[in-house]
Amino acid sequence: MEQKDPDVELMLAFCAGEEAAFDQLFRRWAGPLLRYLERMLGDGALAEELVQEAFLRVHGARERYEPRARFSTWLYRIATNLALNELKRPRRKHVHQEEEKSLLRAPGPGIDEEVASKQMGEKVERELNNLPERQRMALWLSAAEGHSYAEVAAILETTEKSVKALVHRGRSALVARMGDCAESLTSFSRRGTA
Amino acid sequence: MSEKTRDRGQEPGKREERDEASDPSSALKAEDDLALSALLDGELDPAEAEKLRAKLVAQPGLAERGAELGELSGHLQNLANPSERSEAATQLESERVDRMQAALRVRLAAEAAESQVEPEPVAPAPVISLGNFRREGWAAAAALAAGLLFYLAFGDGLGGGETSAPVPSPSEFAAAEPAVPLAESVPEPEPEPELESEASPGAVPEAREFPVEGLALESRLPAPVVTPGVAESDAEWAEINLAEAGQEELAIALEWEVLSDFDVIENLELLELLDGLDRMERI
């Protein structure tokens, strides 16, 4: 590793017996990991369970941890494998957390553009869940969370070239599926401003 | 979002293959599309990025496509980045993280406790063969029945909890019994242990000294029958006549018969009482 990853430093501190470092890592990564797993699984409760499970694995690996990659890459790989295992199982009924979704969707005070943007965001969220799982994972990790292709390749255990293709296909499919929504929103926006 | 780009995006893989076959320029378009995606993700090397930017200026269609893909990336980043979300949503997520952390701590503590506790060797369950049950089972059953009768008859009258040991429960009897092997062989009966050595000095009353409750029991026995030739010290015990004995005494007698088959008798008062009854019976 060329640059020092602060999370790797924390993990090494935890390996040296500093329990607080583990708590810090959890506080730092539990939220993003939860959002990622929620997108992948479509089930908030299950995502919470897997976040805990992923950190249990991290905790259990303290004796044999070697900083070969960024901490987040390693953590996301654990979480991705857990999620893929979960997705292989007979489909659970997805629990939609309407409460949270309603909070996420809460529109601003009567601004048409903001409303249109929020509706578009909702559409992206819905359509994202309809993508094939590896496209969804690659697109989310890369475009939404900003992981490099190399990191995504390490997380998904594939090549950078495949990640590039996965991200592109996912992005193209999503843009196409959102076409109708965009047109309807454009017309809505025009009506609003007229 | 244009019709053209929507057509291109609906089934990207297949459509691109068809386009490449029918239109030689479409291969370049697919390549540009891929490059646009990489550019948005910051994965294009500087030289390629510069080349693509020049194309974007020259080709308005490509620029429009780039804008669409860029808009999508913006929406995805909004979904991922809590700072773009409402305060309430961020608060909710923070609460969820707290909850998860608390649950994780519990799980880690449980795992740590589990790893510290050595697994106890599991004792084999006692196996009672039918042959042994025919020989010994009646005794256990009778002992239980007698114990129950004795308890019902005297209740708390004997001992008051401090000096007299409680009537052993069925599980205690079971615990006192050695595990019987599946084989039909009957184990040799072990010699009766020394009572004095088993009982703790503080818990055992002096021999022949009955507690107040014991005297109360004595007064409830039938009238004494004096038998000539019996030593005076034993006369007290020989006074009980089974013919005149009530239900309680019979229960005691029965229990004595049964308990004599067992190695461990904890209630010394009861033992002494039963001993007297036994001697009387022999006379």
Describe the structure.
The complex is a heterodimer of chains A (194) and B (283). With 194 residues, chain A is mainly α. In chain A, helix 2 (19-41) packs across helix 4 and helix 6 runs antiparallel to helix 10 (179-193). Chain A has helices at residues 6-15, 19-41, 44-60, 71-88, 98-105, 112-129, 133-144, 149-156, 160-177, 179-193. Residues 93-110 and 185-194 of chain A have low confidence and may be disordered. Chain A folds into two domains: 6-88, RNA polymerase sigma factor, region 2, helix turn helix motif (Rna Polymerase Sigma Factor, Chain: A); 103-193, Winged helix-like DNA-binding domain superfamily/Winged helix DNA-binding domain (Arc Repressor Mutant, subunit A). Chain A is globular. Chain B is built from 13 helices and no strands. The radius of gyration of chain B is 46 Å and the shape is rod-shaped.
Key words describing this protein structure:
heterodimer, A: 194 residues, mainly alpha, Rna Polymerase Sigma Factor, Chain: A, Arc Repressor Mutant, subunit A, 2 domains, 0% strand, disordered C terminus, B: 283 residues, 13 helices, 63% helix, disordered N terminus
Secondary structure layout plus pairing:
The complex is a heterodimer of chains A (194) and B (283).
Chain A: H1 6-15, H2 19-41, H3 44-60, H4 71-88, H5 98-105, H6 112-129, H7 133-144, H8 149-156, H9 160-177, H10 179-193
Helix pairs in contact in A: 1-2, 2-3, 2-4, 3-4, 4-8, 6-10, 7-8, 7-9, 8-9
Chain B: H1 3-10, H2 12-22, H3 26-40, H4 46-58, H5 60-80, H6 87-116, H7 130-154, H8 170-176, H9 195-198, H10 212-220, H11 232-238, H12 247-259, H13 268-282
Oligomeric state of shown chains: heterodimer
| Main sheet: strands, sense, barrel of chain A | none
Given the structure, what is the number of helices of chain A? 10
Helix content of chain B: 55-70%
The computed structural class of chain B is: mainly alpha
Total strands of chain B: 0
Write down the overall geometry of chain A: globular
- Work out the strand percent of chain B: under 5%
Q: Could you tell me the radius of gyration of chain A in angstroms? A: 19 Å
Strand proportion of chain A, as a percent range, falls in: under 5%
The low-pLDDT segments of chain B are 1-24, 159-170, 172-221, 229-239
> What is the H level of CATH, i.e. the homologous superfamily of the largest domain in chain A?
Winged helix-like DNA-binding domain superfamily/Winged helix DNA-binding domain
Overall mean pLDDT of chain B: 64
Question: Briefly, what CATH class of the largest domain in chain A?
Answer: Mainly Alpha
The N- to C-terminal Cα distance of chain A equals: 57 Å
Q: Write the element-wise H/E pattern of chain B from the N-terminal end onward.
A: HHHHHHHHHHHHH
Number of helices of chain B: 13
